[in-house]
Amino acid sequence: MDSPEESAMPKIAQIDIFSLSSILLVAVMWGATNPFIKKGSIGYNDLQANSKLGQLWLEIRFLITRWQYILPLVINQLGSIVYVLTLQRTELSLTVPMANSLTFVFTAITARLLGERQSGWRVYCGMALVVLGTIICGLDKLL
User: Fold this and answer.
1) What is the Cα–Cα distance from 135 to 39, expressed in whole angstroms?
2) Does 9 fall in a domain?
3) Most CB atoms within 10 A, among 26, 103, 105, 135?
4) Strand stretches in 15-84, DSSP E
């Protein structure tokens, strides 16, 4: 029969792996959708109506009829649901900084893949520092 300490060790490791993968999933769902939401809303600023109510209606109609905007927005919001569920199972001090910082990394990667120009080495240096900080934060909680 296993001692309580031995049986608790694998469970803790499984929870940590699940937590880290959930945090990574949230960061991907948030970060990868941001450039798509931006692309899907192209033309939004050009909308003009005669009244404030007319402007509101025009903007709402524009956004809800564009699948290029709605689909990434829905995925982004599903990421928020995963985030809330992850917060229930993990430490706040781990989840919040990791999910938020990695979101910027995935936003930069996705934007680059979509052809957006970036500020060169500073972006990549910043991404490397974010990833390094996230690894340190994760290791601190695991060890």
Assistant:
1) 31
2) no
3) 26
4) none
| Residue at 10 is within a domain | no
Other Cβ atoms closer than 10 A to 24: 16
Please give the residue range of the domain that contains residue 81. 17-140
Residues 6+ apart with CB under 8 A from 23: 86, 90, 94, 95, 98, 99, 102
In a domain, 8, yes or no: no
User: Which stretch of DSSP H or E encloses residue 41?
Assistant: none
Angle (nearest 5°) at CA 97 between 95 and 99 = 60
